[in-house]
Each structure stands twice: as structure tokens, then as C-alpha cells.
Amino acid sequence: MVIITLQRNKCIGCNYCVEMAPEMFQMSKKDGKTVLLHAKDKKGFYTVKSNDNEIYNACDNAAKACPVKIISVKLN
Q: Which of 2, 5, 20, 74 is an S-S bond match for 62, by CB 3.0 to 4.6 Å?
């Protein structure tokens, strides 16, 4: 299982995550910050749990590319 967490309020809108993992991230037209697709919000932390291990590498690359380090990716 892959667990992806995003601290959206700290996003600076650089778009790297969307470039690395477009199937999981997209930019909001409202505020220019990233959106973790299908995520559940819990006090500003947006989380997705997926059984699709194929997304791990792309999301891990997105986390590494993020200049403000607000994305975490874990493999359980």
C-alpha cells in the first residue's frame, strides 16, 4: 500500500509534483496550489492510501522534487 500525504497550505505552486506524477496531482485554478487527487483532508494534511504500487515511483519523485518538502510518500 502506498500512502501519500500533502501539506497543501504550505504549497508554493511550483508545479513539479504535477510534472512528476500527473495521475495523482493537479494545480488548482482557484489558488494556484497543488491538489492531491482523491485525498481526504485532516487538519490541513491531505492523504491518499492506494493499493496501486505502480504510483510509488512517480509520487516519490514528486516528493523529492518539491522545493518546500510538503509531500511524503510511504510504502507499507
A: 20
